[in-house]
Amino acid sequence: MRVTCRHSVAEVVEMNRFLDNVVSRLDTSVATGTRTLAKQLSRRGFLGRLGALLVGMGTLPLLPVARAAESQIPELGDPQSCDYWRYCAFGGNLCSCCGGSMTSCPPGTELSPVTWVGTCQNPVDGKHYLISYNDCCGKTMCGRCGCHRTEGDKPIYYPSKSNNILWCFGTQSHAYHCTVALVLSEANGPG
Predict the structure, then answer these.
(1) How many helices (H) and strands (E) does the chain have?
(2) What CATH number does the domain containing 130 carry?
(3) Nearest to 163, CA basis, from 110, 95, 89, 98
């Protein structure tokens, strides 16, 4: 088997010169940038900033992110009524009136992973449950079944328990449509 080369020696030499020039410029740029950075930052300052970044990244799992664990919980009442037991700290429009259900967003909307929470007592078994209220985002506001219950609601300076904030973060659209109520777990006691 015979291999033929389609480039002349002059073309190969010219290509090597071009690549050497590119690598040389890149090397010079990186060396200059590194020296400039080294002049502006001390090792201690760099390590301090790196440490702060790593600690900051470690706190991300502490944000109020949806971690629903729906199970067979005895239910009683109308999920399209503001008086339904899961809605004790609810603020917004019920997705069960807007084409979804109490636990799922309507078609064309996206569940926000960022939530506010409340602790509600189920009248059937008398137990308290931690409820995650997730906004469904991506369409204009539904406008049906608007509810505002503030049992256990906290002021905005305690945002993870406040229903006065639109929670359409982490979604493609920040347009609020409606809200679902997901049971996260059984709580140890009220509020």
Answers:
(1) 2, 5
(2) 2.60.30.10
(3) 89
- Find the Cα–Cα–Cα–Cα dihedral 91, 97, 101, 102, rounded to 10°: 30
Unique residue bearing structure tokens 């008398």: 126
Does 167 participate in catalysis according to the annotation? no
Domain that holds residue 102: 9-186
Q: Is residue 2 part of a domain?
A: no
**Which listed residue (20, 85, 116, 167) is catalytic?**
116
pLDDT in tens, 164-173: 566 787 888 8
Say if 59 falls within a structural domain: yes
Q: How far, in Å, CA of 163 to CA of 149, rounded?
A: 9
**Residue of 85, 125, 135, 153 marked catalytic:** 135
Q: How far apart are CA 89 and CA 44, in angstroms?
A: 47
- List 146's β-bridge partners, or say none: 93
- On whether residue 26 sits in a domain, the answer given is yes
Number of domains in the chain: 1
Q: Any catalytic annotation for residue 116?
A: yes
Residues 136-171: pLDDT tens digits? 999 988 888 888 887 755 555 555 555 556 678 788
The dihedral formed by the CA atoms of 88, 65, 144 and 86, expressed in degrees to the nearest 10: -20
